[in-house]
């Protein structure tokens, strides 16, 4: 048995047929229309457990960043493991509560919370709101006073650290729209010190997504530690620290990824002596590797200078390649003993940008062959559209020999 373990520990070939957990994907292609999102429950559980085990000194509250994938099955799987949720909208908040998440394990982040969303979060008595500006905090104070309620607050600090990730998913630089400048944090603590409705418990940060280097994390974490020590010297209680998420996953053979034990070790070494509640907000790391898209070849097409494989998955199912230039590993469901051939793998959408990968070498593909797009558990189905009025792809969850069709 040959495992495709770099992408998913539970994705493997057996006698040249591709399995997810103990189910042959060829069978799913016969049973369901494609494209089809398939998720390994065991991979989600493995990712959560491995992250927990990586920490030796601190015991962080892991709050899954729901924006990565808001499927109800995922919420329930992670909640049952003891995971909290990081939300960025009222829709995400309500869905978390509906699926049994403890309100005291819900953190509300995001730069553009409306007053209505803030009011609902206060009424639902969630764990905390991560505030992005003094203007937002002033609005929260007014709402709390009107409701005669208090709320826990962490100030999101912008540490001005380049995460060395894609330009469009970097969030911790001074020119990005997120967070509060280091220079303004102490001023805000002083201003709201006596406010009986606002309880500023600590700080939060998030410097970006799909980060594959340890250095940006280490640099940002050291900066925020200095800020905590400064606030404490000024007599302020700082009891909570939300370090955000951002740990990257493997998408293709060129990717190098961060060792999760090294990431946890930096947090252990920097913060274990500060008597802080540590919160982390992984999204992609927990679910990204669990998902695949099962897709069927519509036809091949010969061009003057290249050959194309047109598959039935498109940018309406997976927009990352069009949006970020992302490349996902694509593999055949059935291995064939043929020579490798170079193709551009493209979707059916009426946009030139509907391309998954160019000049990919794979064995010769024909109409009706099935292929798998790897690492699509995060920022795939949740960013899907009905562009070209295509039907939404179904989603199924697999555990060993059983699968469940999701109603989301």
Q: What can you see in these coordinates?
A:
The protein has 408 residues and is an alpha/beta fold. Helix content is 28%, strand content 26%. The protein is built from eleven helices and 22 strands. It has helices at 25-31, 41-54, 72-80, 90-98, 115-123, 134-147, 182-191, 214-233, 260-271, 284-287, 320-324; strands spanning 2-3, 11-14, 17-20, 23-24, 36-40, 61-65, 84-87, 106-108, 128-131, 151-158, 180-181, 198-204, 240-242, 277-280, 291-302, 307-311, 330-332, 340-346, 355-363, 370-373, 394-399, 402-405.
Summarize, please.
The chain is of the alpha/beta class and 408 residues long.
* Secondary structure tally: strands: 22
Determine the structural class based on helices, strands and strand pairing: alpha/beta
Instruction: Fill in the CATH topology of the largest domain.
Output: TIM Barrel
CATH class of the largest domain: Alpha Beta
Spans with pLDDT under 50 lasting ≥5 residues? none
First-to-last CA distance: 33 Å
Shape: elongated
**Rg result:** 23 Å
Largest sheet: 9 strands, mixed
Strand content: 25-35%
Architecture of the largest domain, CATH level 2?
A: Alpha-Beta Barrel
Total number of helical segments? 11
Topology:
Blueprint: E1 2-3, E2 11-14, E3 17-20, E4 23-24, H1 25-31, E5 36-40, H2 41-54, E6 61-65, H3 72-80, E7 84-87, H4 90-98, E8 106-108, H5 115-123, E9 128-131, H6 134-147, E10 151-158, E11 180-181, H7 182-191, E12 198-204, H8 214-233, E13 240-242, H9 260-271, E14 277-280, H10 284-287, E15 291-302, E16 307-311, H11 320-324, E17 330-332, E18 340-346, E19 355-363, E20 370-373, E21 394-399, E22 402-405
Parallel strand pairs: 5-21, 6-7, 6-14, 7-8, 8-9, 9-10, 10-11, 10-12, 12-13, 13-14, 16-18
Antiparallel strand pairs: 1-2, 2-3, 3-4, 5-15, 15-16, 15-20, 17-20, 18-19, 21-22
Helix pairs in contact: 5-6, 8-9
């Amino acid at each position: 048995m040959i495992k495709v373990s770099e992408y998913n520990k539970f994705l493997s070939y057996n006698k040249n047929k591709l399995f997810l957990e103990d189910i042959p994907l060829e069978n799913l292609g016969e049973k369901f229309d494609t494209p089809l999102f398939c998720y390994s429950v065991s991979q989600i559980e493995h990712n959560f457990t491995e992250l927990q085990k990586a920490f030796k000194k601190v015991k962080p509250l892991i709050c899954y960043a729901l924006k990565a994938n808001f499927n109800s099955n995922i919420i329930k799987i992670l909640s049952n493991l003891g995971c909290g949720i990081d939300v960025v909208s009222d829709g995400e908040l309500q869905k978390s509560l509906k699926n049994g998440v403890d309100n005291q394990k819900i953190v509300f982040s995001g730069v553009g919370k409306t007053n209505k969303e803030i009011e609902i979060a206060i009424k639902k008595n969630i764990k905390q709101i991560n505030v992005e500006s003094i203007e937002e905090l002033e609005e929260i104070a007014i709402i709390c006073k009107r409701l005669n309620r208090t709320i826990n607050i962490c100030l999101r600090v912008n540490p001005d650290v380049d995460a060395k990730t894609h330009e469009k998913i970097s969030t911790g630089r001074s020119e990005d729209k997120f967070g509060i400048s280091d220079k303004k944090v102490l001023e805000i603590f002083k201003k709201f010190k006596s406010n009986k409705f606002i309880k500023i418990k600590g700080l939060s940060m998030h410097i970006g997504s799909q980060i594959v280097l340890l250095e940006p994390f280490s640099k940002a974490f050291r900066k925020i530690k200095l800020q905590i020590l400064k606030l404490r010297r000024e007599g302020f209680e700082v009891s909570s620290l939300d370090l955000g998420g951002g740990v990257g996953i493997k998408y293709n053979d060129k990717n190098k990824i961060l060792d999760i034990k090294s990431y946890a070790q930096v947090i252990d070494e920097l913060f274990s002596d500060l008597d802080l509640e540590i919160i982390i907000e992984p999204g992609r790391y927990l679910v990204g590797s669990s998902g695949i898209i099962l897709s069927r070849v519509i036809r091949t097409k010969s061009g003057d200078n290249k050959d194309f494989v047109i598959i039935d998955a498109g940018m309406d199912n997976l927009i990352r390649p069009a949006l970020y230039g992302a490349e996902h590993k694509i593999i055949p469901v059935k291995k064939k003993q043929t020579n490798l051939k170079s193709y551009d793998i493209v979707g059916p959408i009426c946009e030139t940008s509907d391309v998954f990968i160019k000049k990919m070498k794979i064995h010769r593909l024909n109409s009706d062959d099935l292929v798998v797009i790897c690492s699509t558990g995060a920022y795939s189905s949740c960013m899907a559209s009905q562009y070209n009025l295509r039907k939404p792809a179904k989603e199924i969850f697999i555990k060993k020999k059983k699968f469940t069709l999701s109603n989301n």
